[in-house]
């Protein structure tokens, strides 16, 4: 099992009573709730946490992109990746998971940013491409009905820029460049590894599993039942297209908390994971899934799974039962991760060891215990025969 430490960088000082007036921490929450002095302190604190995880032996650290919300203060993850590039050990990778291609106006800028990071890290960059969740389309005034086609064209343009000798013209439906001639070229050849995070859209799973790509698929923000289905869907799609998917092509992004024992872990984590679920992740369905954002079939599946994520007040106990949170002493966390791996067949874990309002001391404690007591016990764990589940 391979481990990355993932940070959302939320505005942890968010007034918890904001929801008495506003429906969500996304899109319409006034930025008067943000105190720049506190925010600056949080940025430095969060970078310290990412650097600490890298120093303790995680394979890599992960950052991502969200816009205009208190849930994640990283509208420009390339900036944070650049700050980390010279400060973390040269054994640690940096995963940018990922750039939200359809809501950005210039894919060549993304190609350039990633190429620079790939050179600075001498090939330790893991790139990620996402469509961005529905709220981003509200925030940045992008038509969600164009999401898929903008994503695919932007992806194809970036791949061409990385792998083709320039200059050459690009004339697509959404992007037009008379001269594509990337400087610098990417360090890793033919291009850096690509991971595709998703909430579980069928179209996204099939895109990642295509034999021309074989991108790593990373399941995010979903209960365990959805995780098992999407892992199976990827394997089925790979088999249908003529190859067998590797467990290293499958990953899970999951919030975790580990302490000295189960009782201590649950007591320390409970208020902070519930703040994450009920304050930071709070979002009306129309923000998450605007009309036209995804196909009808995927829409139905996502709505069903997201009822357990964004619908109603969620307790820590419910999240533990659903498999959207893992919490306990070291052996409990080891056993649960091993069981999820056995049933899901994945080999990558994107460990969200900070969430919501979890303070710095508990975050550092969580990182340390996880790195020193959980990771060593699972470093040789690989999926065996995975029990089959219905992919639909």
From TrEMBL:
Signal peptide: none annotated. The keyword Oxidoreductase applies. Residues 28-344 form the Luciferase-like domain. InterPro entries: Bact_Lucif_Oxidored (IPR050766), Luciferase-like_dom (IPR011251), Luciferase-like_sf (IPR036661). It is an enzyme of class 1 (oxidoreductase). Its EC number is 1.-.-.-. Keywords: Monooxygenase, Oxidoreductase. It comes from the Bacteria. Pfam families: Bac_luciferase. GO terms for molecular function: oxidoreductase activity. The keyword Metal-binding does not apply. This is LLM class flavin-dependent oxidoreductase. The lineage of its organism: Bacteria, Pseudomonadati, Pseudomonadota, Alphaproteobacteria, Acetobacterales.
């Amino acid at each position: 099992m391979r481990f990355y430490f993932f940070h959302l960088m939320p505005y942890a000082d968010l007034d918890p009573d904001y929801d008495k007036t506003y429906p969500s921490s996304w899109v319409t929450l006034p930025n008067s709730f943000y105190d720049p002095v506190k925010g600056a302190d949080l940025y430095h604190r969060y970078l310290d946490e990412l650097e600490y995880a890298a120093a303790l032996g995680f394979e890599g650290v992960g950052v991502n992109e969200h816009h205009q919300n208190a849930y994640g203060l990283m509208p420009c993850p390339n900036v944070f990746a650049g700050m980390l590039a010279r400060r973390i050990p040269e054994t640690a990778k940096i995963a940018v998971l990922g750039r939200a291609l359809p809501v950005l106006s210039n894919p060549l800028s993304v190609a350039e940013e990633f190429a620079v990071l790939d050179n600075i890290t001498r090939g330790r960059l893991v790139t990620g491409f996402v469509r961005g969740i529905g709220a981003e389309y509200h925030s940045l005034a992008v038509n969600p009905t164009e999401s898929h086609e903008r994503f695919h064209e932007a992806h194809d343009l970036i791949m061409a820029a990385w792998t083709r000798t320039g200059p050459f013209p690009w004339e697509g439906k959404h992007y037009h460049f008379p001269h594509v001639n990337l400087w610098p070229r990417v360090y890793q050849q033919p291009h850096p590894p690509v991971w595709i995070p998703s909430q579980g859209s069928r179209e996204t799973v099939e895109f990642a599993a295509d034999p021309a790509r074989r991108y790593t698929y990373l399941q995010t923000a979903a209960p365990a039942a959805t995780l098992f289905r999407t892992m199976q869907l990827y394997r089925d799609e790979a088999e249908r297209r003529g190859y067998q998917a590797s467990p290293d092509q499958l990953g899970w992004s999951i919030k975790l908390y580990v302490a000295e024992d189960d009782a201590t872990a649950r007591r320390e984590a409970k208020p902070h994971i519930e703040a994450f679920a009920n304050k930071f992740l709070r979002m009306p369905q129309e923000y998450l899934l605007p009309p036209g954002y995804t196909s009808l079939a995927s829409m139905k599946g996502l709505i069903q799974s997201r009822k357990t994520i964004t619908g109603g007040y969620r307790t820590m106990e419910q999240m533990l039962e659903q498999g959207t949170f893992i919490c306990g002493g070291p052996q409990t966390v080891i056993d649960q991760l091993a069981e999820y791996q056995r049933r899901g067949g994945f080999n990558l874990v994107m460990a969200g060891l900070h969430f919501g309002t979890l303070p710095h001391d508990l975050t550092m404690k969580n990182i340390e215990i996880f790195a020193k007591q959980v990771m060593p016990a699972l470093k040789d764990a690989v999926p065996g025969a995975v029990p089959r589940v219905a992919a639909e």
